[in-house]
Amino acid sequence: LSPHSNMPPPPPPKNPPPPSPPENLPPSSNAEPVLSEIEVIRTAQEFIRALQNASLDNGDLDAQSLQDLLNPDQHPLDLDPVRDHDLLMCLKMFIAQQDTYSSDESYTANISAVHNAYPDSKLYSHYRIEKEVKNLSGIQPILCDMCPNSCMAYTGPLKNLEQCTQCGERHYDEKGNYHQKFYTIPIAPQIQARKWNEESAKELDYLHSR
């Protein structure tokens, strides 16, 4: 037998070298992702990045809509048939105009005719009644330019393009005006508006209270 066979093994070094990092690990989540050289994939990556970095500070809500979202009205919605007679009448005419696809001028003409018959009525212009509808319904659309052929919307990484990537239609006409608008209806103002009414607020609480 060796004279050293019963000796304990030597102790490990006090400061062992750090283990080597495994190979083929994905890049750190903090690292800037590498964009593809393929245009359609690169565009998708840029949209994903925009969604990941989305916040109220860099969104498309205008200043007033953002203020209304962060500081909603705390009073319940209560339209009185007598007190709010003029507003309710204008709302009905506005809805009728929308249902029959009439022009804005037709609403204005109807308002003018009513005002001639009832000069003491406090009637709403088309601009004012449209604003009231937005406030009462919570429908605060976000508008962005779109291709008139419905190929794409000029938003995100496509916002500043001069023409459609699919059909080649120009973003603007000869006078510098957009061809068509795309509407996005955010959900948060709609939920807030439903909470202003007692009946719809109870409906929102159905799963909790059933």
Q: What can you see in these coordinates?
A:
The protein is mainly alpha-helical and 210 residues long. Helices cover 40% and strands 5% of the residues. The protein has helices at 39-52, 63-70, 85-99, 104-117, 126-137, 187-195, 198-204, 206-209; strands at residues 142-146, 180-184. α3 (85-99) runs antiparallel to α4 (104-117) and α3 (85-99) crosses α5. The termini are far apart. Residues 1-33 are annotated as: Disordered. Residues 1-25 have a biased composition (Pro residues).
Poorly predicted tracts of residues: none
Instruction: Write down the overall mean pLDDT.
Output: 85
Number of strands: 2
Q: How many alpha or pi helices? A: 8
Content-based structural category: mainly alpha
> Which of globular, elongated, flat, extended, rod-shaped describes the shape?
flat
Helix proportion range: 25-40%
Strand content: under 5%
Rg: 31 Å
Q: Largest sheet, if any?
A: 2 strands, antiparallel
Q: Which sequence of SSEs, written as H and E, runs from N to C?
A: HHHHHEEHHH
Strand order of the main beta sheet, please?
1-2
End-to-end span in angstroms?
84 Å
